[in-house]
Design a protein that fits this description.
This protein has 211 residues and is mainly alpha-helical. The chain is built from 8 helices and no strands.
Length: 211
């Protein structure tokens, strides 16, 4: 998603934002992995893990396969995708150690979902839009389901990091590179549901009341 009219300064700023957003998601995954390993709890439903894995496998493999043709920004995104994939594999291992399994039917559904976007859109656009819509669904799910433990600090950190990690690409794709509702609508929806989830958690409620 490179605009040749962009100045070097703007490209550098957008690249820095991409790295920051990617790091937020890595940090969120680490919280989720530790929560599963230490508490035996998952911070997202089984389907979210399947959809994330399908997205990361497809776009990591695609980026590596076309590496020589990619711009610097797309190469950085590929490396971020690989780092997310590594985190999700670790998370899946933690889930399996506690006796749960990822159903093959969910993996097949997740792969079909990603391929449906790829069949209709260029890879970069398909990656962004499919990720935002699946994140919207899982953010809504988390907002509607009561927190298992309202005072769970890891769950609070996970939700906040996920909200920031989604807000940044929403801003870069949907605002800084021209106002584009196709990115803004699902991205802002994700952030809204994540904020709703935060307000339902005890530590954040106390913090807001004290202010």
């Amino acid at each position: 998603m490179i605009d040749q009219s962009e100045t070097p300064a703007k490209r550098s700023a957008l690249l820095a934002l991409k790295l920051f957003g990617g790091a937020c998601w890595v940090a969120a995954y680490r919280e989720a992995i530790h929560e599963t390993e230490e508490e035996g709890a998952q911070l997202l439903p089984e389907a979210a893990l399947a959809f994330n894995l399908a997205w990361e496998v497809i776009y990591s493999a695609g980026g590596i396969y076309t590496w020589k043709k990619l711009s610097l920004e797309d190469r950085v995104q590929t490396l971020i995708n690989v780092s997310w994939l590594i985190c999700d594999v670790k998370w899946l291992k933690a889930v399996r150690r506690r006796g749960d399994k990822l159903r093959p039917s969910l993996i097949a559904l997740a792969a079909a979902y990603q391929l449906a976007f790829l069949a209709e859109l260029p890879p970069g656009e398909a990656a962004r839009i499919s990720a935002l819509w699946q994140n919207l669904g899982f953010s809504a799910y988390c907002a509607l389901v009561p927190p298992r433990n309202k005072a769970d600090k890891r769950a609070q950190n996970f939700t906040l990091l996920r909200a920031i990690g989604t807000a940044i690409p929403t801003m870069t794709s949907g605002v800084l590179r021209g106002v584009q509702p196709k990115y803004l609508a699902p991205g802002l929806g994700c952030v809204m549901f994540d904020l709703i989830r935060l307000t339902r958690q005890e530590g954040w409620n106390r913090k807001w009341r004290s202010q």
